[in-house]
Amino acid sequence: MKISPSSLKTPLAETTTAERSTGSNRAHQAYNSGSTNEVDFSAAARQLNSLQDSSADVDMQKVQALREAIAAGELKIDTSRIADSLIASVRDLLK
């Protein structure tokens, strides 16, 4: 069997430019026909958006208190409490 360039045509190559652009225009018209400028977010999306409020991310008073305690050598870290919390978190994730 001989392979010639004419037998290597792809389905896209067999369509004309006019056919491709007509299909594209139909998709564009279908997209724009019922579109509005409003988007309705789900309750979960609204909650996630509210969590992005950067002003509530960091309690600067606590940060300053920790800085002062570290500088004064007064900060005591309870490693067993940290370990217990990590283990509890992993247990929750595995449930």
From TrEMBL:
Superkingdom of source: Bacteria
Protein name according to UniProt: Negative regulator of flagellin synthesis
InterPro entries associated with the record: Anti-sigma-28_factor_FlgM_sf, FlgM, FlgM_C
Keyword Glycoprotein: no
Family from the record: Belongs to the FlgM family.
Function: Responsible for the coupling of flagellin expression to flagellar assembly by preventing expression of the flagellin genes when a component of the middle class of proteins is defective. It negatively regulates flagellar genes by inhibiting the activity of FliA by directly binding to FliA.
Keywords from the named record: Bacterial flagellum biogenesis, Cell projection, Cilium, Flagellum, Repressor, Transcription, Transcription regulation
